[in-house]
Amino acid sequence: MARRGTRNVVGRTGTRSGSDVNNGDEEYDAELAKNVVRFSAPPFDEEGSWVDYESQFILRCKVKGLGENTPQATEARRDLLLAYVGATPLKKVKNFMLPANVCNMSFNDLLKAFRSIYKPTRTIFSARLEFEQCLRQQDETFASFVTRLKELAAFCNYGRSFEERVRDRFAGGIRFPEFEVEIRQRWPQGENPDESELKLQQILDLAESMSRARKELQDKTADDQTVSKVNRATENNSMERLATKNQCFKCGLSHNKEIKCPASQSKCYKCEQVGHFARKCRARRVRQVGMENKEDRDNDTENDDEEENRIDHLIINRVENRNRIPQAKITVKVNEIEVVMEFDSGARASIIGRTLWKRIGSPKLNRCQSKFVAYGNN
């Protein structure tokens, strides 16, 4: 690297001799050499932008104390760029500058050579077309959208209208209907009421403010809906408890005391007493016949075979007679043999024992699709 020559320097405290300047040069060169050793930079990615890499490289030089415009610092930046730019870019710039030697070029001339090699290939027309069609992506923040617009506009050569172009594209591609209506109402002429220029930052702040307000409103609405569901569920449960509490002990229905109970003149077929239905009979302990059906029975006109096949799980329950009141009996014919059976209008099927099966002729048994379980799984 070149050395600054010996000279007299006039300072605030007087005149410095040439030997003092030489000592200063040596200290400067030593400090510069230390900064060069401490410097590092990533190689240039040819898929990226040379303009971005160049600006980042110059910024690194300034941070590391190599940003001065002295001959020594300028030569140091040139040598560091050639050392860190990468093998492929270095080869390209050497071939591009033949027969000149890139090691003897100035730093600025070297930058111009790289700019020529990595000049963007797309035209301004295509760059502007891509910019004008740019839309905010789903879940993309407003700030990220602005950054992406600026990156696209950098190749459009908009000059002084750069910010205005980005501002207008932001307003047109934001995909935020409420904001688009608001901006047209607030700034119909594209400028402030005092005729000052409408800034990009103004509409960016407005968009973020409206977005926060909408989110807060949505959160509040969701909370209100949750509270409403809880209230409705509580109300329904209260109604069910009230209905159970107000059930008539004679008929099992809910009705006012002033209304005549429909079971008051009815005879219970279980205990043969008048004044209540069998379902509310207290003379015996009845375990209801339960049935679990996995399929909906929407068609009441289906025949017995189809309906029986749809029964998935039958529970055959035991009926205990506390007061030994005679059971309701009916006589039915099974395989042309008369059989006396208990009458139970709530049962969907009946089970007979092995003795009765033999008595009616031991008819052939077919596999049943239903599962029969007695009370207590017996």
UniProtKB/TrEMBL annotation:
Keywords: Metal-binding, Zinc, Zinc-finger. One of its GO terms (molecular function) is zinc ion binding. Residues 7-16 have a biased composition (Low complexity). Residues 1-25 are annotated as: Disordered. The lineage of its organism: Eukaryota, Metazoa, Ecdysozoa, Arthropoda, Hexapoda. SMART domains: ZnF_C2HC. The keyword Glycoprotein does not apply. This is Uncharacterized protein K02A2.6. InterPro entries: Retrovirus_Pol_polyprotein, Znf_CCHC, Znf_CCHC_sf.
